[in-house]
Design goal:
Layout (H helix, E strand, L loop, with lengths): L6 H12 L6 E2 L3 E6 L4 E6 L5 E6 L13 E4 L2 E5 L10 E6 L8 E4 L4 E6 L3 E6 L6 E6 L5 E5 L13 E5 L2 E6 L2 H4 L2 E6 L8 E3 L13 E7 L3 E6 L12 E6 L10
């Protein structure tokens, strides 16, 4: 479908969003709406909500899951999917925003690879599972593994490398199960991934000792890093959540908010 969005288009988009496990992906130019249940993604212009293209799974005989994980980087849309054999752990599709009618590039690898973030050249994400979980850096063009980062001392077994953010040469990796659920965030230098990471926590003082699941979500720009602690708020109240903001230029300091 293409053209200016009609009320029916908008209603359909609402259905897509409600039917997806993931939220829509927003860029300056596009809104990418995944619908895992309907095995499609819809590309919409951000300025006027006109539908550019509805892309259905190229694997109609598969087990679904098309759009379960969707990432936009530059002019590429990366979509995690099952293939016709039901194999989910080793296939991403890469679509070109400049030519959405072209067939996608299949990016097969020895996975699984989850929750990626991208810079200009690489993707960083969870590689493996359980006690073998690592952070992987993969080539953006073909997702071949470039570097594997083993779990640092003190990281939890179950959740290391579950959440990511990247800003400049800093890669933030969440570890929400650390210390029975207190959580922490590792900060890597992408120019030297073998160097020991620095660590962010929400417990620089007694005021924040009640924070739980710190590192559940991470967002970063050139000035600030925001990290959520979604279970407690630091004031003794459960299930209320909190957000801690760090100065990008002084990450060793206590959060400023």
């Amino acid at each position: 479908t293409s053209g200016v969005a009609t009320p029916a288009d908008v209603a359909a988009l609402e259905t897509f969003v409600k039917g997806s496990e993931n939220s829509e992906v927003v860029t300056e130019q596009y809104l990418i709406v995944p619908s895992e249940q309907q095995n499609m993604i819809t590309v919409v212009k951000a300025d006027d909500l006109s539908v550019v293209k509805t892309i259905e799974t190229p694997y109609p005989s598969g087990q679904g899951g098309f759009g379960k994980n969707t990432v936009v980087s530059g002019t590429s849309i990366f979509v995690d999917t099952y293939d016709d054999s039901g194999n989910y752990d080793d296939l991403w599709l890469k679509y070109d925003l400049n030519d959405l009618d072209a067939a996608p590039v299949e990016l097969a690898y020895d996975g699984p690879f989850r929750s990626p973030v991208f810079d200009d050249s690489y993707g960083y994400g969870t590689y493996g599972s359980g006690s073998t979980t690592q952070v992987a850096r993969l080539n953006k063009n073909d997702l071949t593994v470039d570097t594997l980062i083993s779990r640092p001392a003190g990281a939890s077994t179950n959740s290391f490398s579950g959440v990511y953010a990247i800003q400049g040469t800093k890669l933030f990796v969440g570890d929400v199960q650390y210390n029975a659920g207190d959580g922490q965030v590792f900060v890597y230098d992408t120019t030297d991934l073998n160097a020991a990471p620095s660590v962010l926590t929400a417990s620089p003082s007694a005021e924040y000792q009640d924070i739980e699941r710190f590192g559940n979500n991470i967002s970063a720009n050139d000035k600030w890093v925001a990290v959520s602690g979604y279970t407690s708020d630091g004031n003794g109240y459960n299930s209320t959540g909190s957000v801690h903001v760090f100065d990008m230029e002084n990450l060793s300091a206590a959060p400023i908010a």
